[in-house]
Amino acid sequence: MYLQCWAVMCCNVPQERVFKASGSNNFYMAMLLVILFLSTLPAIYTIVTIPPSFDCGPFSGKKRMFDVIHETLESDFPPWFSRVFSYASNPGLVLPFILLMVLAIYYLQSTSKSYKEANVELKKKLQTQNEENKKKNKRAALKAQMDLEEARKAASQAAEQQKNNNASLPEQEGETSNK
């Protein structure tokens, strides 16, 4: 038991660097997207390529399960909708559209990274400017304090001199009256 307790205490040490919540959230969302894509591949492969059972099921008598969609479009919808759907499902149209979406995602991701780098640089500049302003304010406060001390000294000297002048005036008046 003590050995297990020691192993738990040694192995279950928290990370030194705290992970950002948004980074881990993006990672989990990307993993979910990949898993969703991978889980739909077998179903899509089955629907498009494997022929259904001949004897039973809703797809009996069809070459592929996908043929039901064409029959439904032809029988239940107007003819123009079936033509639009057949043009939209054309690989010559779908593949460039997918390629365009991938390029757009790549472009948006790269601009996002560049904006993020610019924000980091701006934050650094703001921090250095803030530090410089603090230093300037500190210098200005020290200078104002020195000026205030000099003004106090000058005022105290002027008060002393005034006091001395006031004290010497009665003495001078006494001397002039004695003469």
From TrEMBL:
Residues 128-179 are annotated as: Disordered. One of its GO terms (cellular component) is plasma membrane. Residues 158-179 have a biased composition (Polar residues). It comes from Mastacembelus armatus. The keyword Transmembrane applies. GO terms for biological process: detection of mechanical stimulus involved in sensory perception of sound; vestibular reflex. InterPro entries: TMC (IPR038900). The keyword Transmembrane helix applies. This is Transmembrane channel-like protein. The chain crosses the membrane at residues 27-48, 84-108. One of its GO terms (molecular function) is mechanosensitive monoatomic ion channel activity.
